[in-house]
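To: structure desk
From: M.T.
Subject: fold request, one chain
Message: Could you run this one when you get a chance? Sequence is below, nothing fancy, just the single chain.
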Amino acid sequence: MRDVRVWACFGMAMVTDGAQEYWQVERLRVAPPTASEFATAYPGKRFFERPVSSTSDGHHVARSKGHCKYIDCYWTRNNDDSSNFHDRFTIAVKVAPRSLYVINRRGAAYFRAVPGAPIELRHPDFSPAGCTAKLVRVKKELLELDRDIPDQKGPCFLVWDRTYGTDWVLFKGCTCEDSGWRNLFSPSNLTVEDCTFRRTPGVPLRLIADWRADLWCEGMGTTNVVIRNCTFEDAGLLTPKEGQISTRCVVPEGWDIPPPDKGFVGGDVLIEKCTFVRPTGPVLDLPTGRNVTMRDCTVDLRDNTRATPSAGAFNTAGAENVRIERITTLR
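Reply: Done. Structure tokens follow.
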């Protein structure tokens, strides 16, 4: 898909959801029209400035088989995430030797696995449960498998449909500015290169795994990530306590579960040759993660009128084996 322009739309500007694999998006532009663009397209019509481009995500991947490239794309004035890459999963409890009951509020209809799908079970901390089975039947919220289910550790199983896997993603030369929230990435084997994140209210770039009983089961964690030669300018305006680049695992509040597998949620990450201009808070925030290297980056704190005491800091207490080297700070 090349040279597609979205001026204004209700909902998400672009949704990827299905078994597609090997695709490329070039120069997708989600932005309200300028007066001259509108006059060219609709001569003689009255122009009015649109406050938003899309009322929800600028781009959303719900399910795919990955191997995709996003090159020279642009998002602005969308009213939620600029981009959200994930694969849907669900949470369920064992109710019979071969049966699971979906307890996520959005139910089996949100998960949408069909008979014949390969189902992998993991424990709440993302560790393997040692069970991959074929889905035999879906009856309302009941999932029936073709083999016995192991003992449950903790309050639930994480249930994945291994038909899908949004991995091997290249995000290159893209710009996200003045958007509603953030950019969420959960693919493994991910490269984010030569991108600009400008005036993003939320965390500009977050590596995430997110599961809750009431809402989302989106993002299975990410490993093998390269973030290179990117610029973060006046980003994180509404979340100064969180980093411009961060890892995060969101689980139901109050649930007694072990910590997530740090290698699976934000593991093996290289951040290099990036520039952070006027950060309001930390440039790096790692509540979880393993084997993270940040090097040859520049943090520019000059003329930083929104700076908090943590501006330009590195929060790494929640991660293991973190190396930060050759950082230039401008004051």
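Reply (cont.): Residues 89-161 form one domain. Let me know if you need anything else for the meeting.
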